Each structure stands twice: as structure tokens, then as C-alpha cells.
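> forwarded from #structure-qc
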């Protein structure tokens, strides 16, 4: 009984009861008839708790998270968080992209929980499930209140995002970084514009994301780039890896961390349907590459990691040059066209 009696009114709202999963008392459902939000339904909830402990078995390097949203209109086809929408009895495909849960009381709740004597001021990670700077944030403006609370309590935190909207909160980020540890990571897996448009259709372009990295670093905030995902056969050609690392280096990022595409249940079905539609000749190769489960084989992951690390070294990404946008010379040879055919993993 997670979403009983839910009704939707255009440019209006309605109330429902019993959203036990969120610990919320009620849901207000809204749609907005503006081009930016057309086709998106927002479910506003008042959560009872906002700091979440990551389950002990998690592979994540953080223990506490704050996620003001569920679902993400950035709509990345491969998004691993899709599965979590099924816990709400919501669809993990289009539903994940267009049914967005908004914890409207997140800033107040966080401020209260940070002030509790039981809270020990540990690191809080944001953007770990879905993007806290997705389009909805432009309307709901939850992050300024969240960042203010973290700043006022000098509580260390990190943000992972693809949203250039983070620049709206630049002043708050600078203020917070003066009193506590602030880690910002921007996700840019590749720079190929054609691939971006189809596989990450709701996100700002990779170029705009790297511009955001540049602006943040120019304001003294260290930003690492999570080069994720590297998509087998579509963004893993050596020329593509080079172009991406080069652009990341030029943005002034302090580090680059590659991560190969993984396909957990929920994301896997959606991604494979997309692949069948856009790159049908790759379907069999993906079935073989991901035959063992959600992750590509270790040898493949190691190869990508080594290539990216070598390129990072070549382009001088490292703490010694942190915070300074780099002047990277134009490549002397033209970058190869992206290769989606069978050039990379002929053994598979
Ligand atoms: S931006 Fe992140 S959370 Fe949003 S759809 Fe893309 S991968 Fe998922």
C-alpha cells in the first residue's frame, strides 16, 4: 500500500494517504504545464527522516546520505537507481524519468537532525542515489536550504552531480568549504555529443558540465570528475577516451576516476531495450560481455582504468595542479570518429 488513491491533476494538486515507505504522512501530486516540466509528475512528500544510513553490505565509501529526490528527469538510460523506483511500485523505465518524488521538508528536517545531540557530525554524501541538481531542483530549491544547514553546522559533505544548476549555489558552496570539507564530483563519462543526446537525454551536455567544473575550480573549489560510465563499444575507443580525458584535464578537475558501465536489474532491461533500438548490432556482444552479471569482466575494467590513468598522467591531472584550469594544446591529429562497431573487444 505505497501509492494508494493517487490522482494527478494538471497544474493542480491532490492529497493521498499512506506512503509508508517514505515515512511520509501524505503525498501532494503536481504537474506543471511548462516546457521544462511537461510530462513530469511530482509527488511532494513530507519525509520523517532525511539522513539515511547506507546498508552495511554496500560497496559505497560513505555511510550517510541525504537524497531529497527519488526518480530523475536526467533520464540516463543506464541509471543504476532505476531499480529503487520499483520499491515505490513505480515503473523503472519512463516512470523513473517522469515520476519524481520530492521531499519538500528536506532542508528543515536536515537542520533539525544535524542539531540533534545524537548526530556526530559525520560526512554526508549527496547525489549518490539520484541527482540532487536535476531539473526539479530549479523549481523546488531544496539544495540552498540543505547547504545552509550543512554550512551552519560545519558538517562535511560531498555532492555527485551532472547538473550545472549546482552553479546557482556557488556562494553557499564556497562558504561551506571555508568551514568544513566539501567534495564535489561531476560525472562526465564521455564527450561524444551524439551519444550524449540519446543515452543521457535529460542532462546538460558534457561540455556544459565541464564548464561548471571550470567555474567551480576558478572559485577555489576542488572538483573531481567521475568518468562514468565508460560504455563498452560506444565510448571506449582510445580516441574517445583521449578526447574525454583531455577535456576533463582542460576543465581544471583535480582528478579523473573511470568507471565502466554496470547493468543491474532495473537498469539492464531499460538499457538493453535502448541498445536494441539504437545499436542492434551490439546486443549479442553486450549479452556476452555482461553474461556473468551486472559488471563487465575484470580484465575489461582494468584495461579501461589503465588507459584512463595513463591519459590522466599525460595531461597532468593531479593534486599538484588542483584548482587551476589547464591550458591543453589542441591535438595535432584529428580525433577519430566515435567507433561503435566491432573494433574494441574482438575476443568477446
Ligand atoms: S543523472 Fe544520475 S541519477 Fe539522474 S538519471 Fe542520470 S545517472 Fe541517474
Amino acid at each position: 500500500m505505497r501509492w494508494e488513491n493517487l490522482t494527478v491533476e494538471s497544474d493542480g494538486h491532490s492529497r493521498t494517504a499512506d506512503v509508508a515507505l517514505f515515512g511520509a504522512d501524505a503525498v501532494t501530486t503536481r504537474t506543471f504545464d511548462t516546457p521544462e516540466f511537461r510530462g513530469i509528475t511530482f509527488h511532494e512528500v513530507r519525509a520523517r527522516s532525511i539522513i539515511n544510513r547506507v546498508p552495511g553490505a554496500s560497496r559505497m565509501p560513505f555511510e550517510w546520505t541525504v537524497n531529497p529526490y527519488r526518480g530523475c528527469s536526467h533520464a540516463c538510460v543506464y541509471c543504476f537507481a532505476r531499480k529503487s523506483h520499483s520499491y515505490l511500485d513505480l515503473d523503472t523505465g519512463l516512470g523513473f524519468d517522469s515520476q519524481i518524488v520530492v521531499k519538500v521538508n528536506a532542508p528543515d528536517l536536515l537542520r533539525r537532525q544535524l542539531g540533534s545531540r545524537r548526530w556526530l557530525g559525520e560526512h554526508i554524501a549527496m547525489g549518490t542515489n539520484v541527482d540532487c541538481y536535476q531539473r526539479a531542483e530549479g523549481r523546488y530549491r531544496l539544495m540552498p536550504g540543505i547547504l545552509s544547514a550543512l554550512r551552519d553546522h560545519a558538517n562535511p559533505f560531498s555532492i555527485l552531480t551532472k547538473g550545472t544548476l549546482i552553479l546557482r549555489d556557488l556562494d553557499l558552496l564556497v562558504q561551506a568549504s571555508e568551514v568544513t570539507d566539501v567534495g564535489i564530483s561531476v560525472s562526465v563519462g564521455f564527450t561524444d555529443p551524439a551519444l550524449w543526446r540519446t543515452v543521457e537525454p535529460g542532462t546538460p551536455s558534457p561540455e556544459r558540465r565541464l564548464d561548471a567544473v571550470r567555474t567551480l575550480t576558478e572559485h577555489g573549489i576542488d572538483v573531481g570528475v567521475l568518468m562514468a560510465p565508460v560504455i563498452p563499444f560506444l565510448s571506449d575507443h582510445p580516441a574517445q577516451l583521449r578526447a574525454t580525458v583531455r577535456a576533463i584535464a582542460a576543465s581544471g578537475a583535480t582528478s579523473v576516476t573511470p568507471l565502466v558501465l554496470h547493468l543491474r536489474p532495473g537498469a539492464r532491461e531499460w538499457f538493453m531495450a535502448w541498445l536494441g533500438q539504437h545499436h542492434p548490432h551490439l546486443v549479442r556482444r553486450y549479452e556476452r560481455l555482461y553474461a556473468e552479471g551486472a559488471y563487465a569482466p575484470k580484465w575489461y575494467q582494468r584495461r579501461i582504468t589503465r588507459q584512463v590513468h595513463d591519459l590522466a598522467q599525460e595531461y597532468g591531472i593531479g593534486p599538484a595542479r588542483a584548482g587551476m584550469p589547464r591550458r591543453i594544446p589542441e591535438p595535432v591529429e584529428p580525433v577519430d570518429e566515435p567507433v561503435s562497431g566491432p573494433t574494441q573487444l574482438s575476443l568477446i
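QC bot note: Confidence is low (pLDDT under 50) at residues 1-21, 319-348. DSSP finds twelve helices and twelve strands in the chain.
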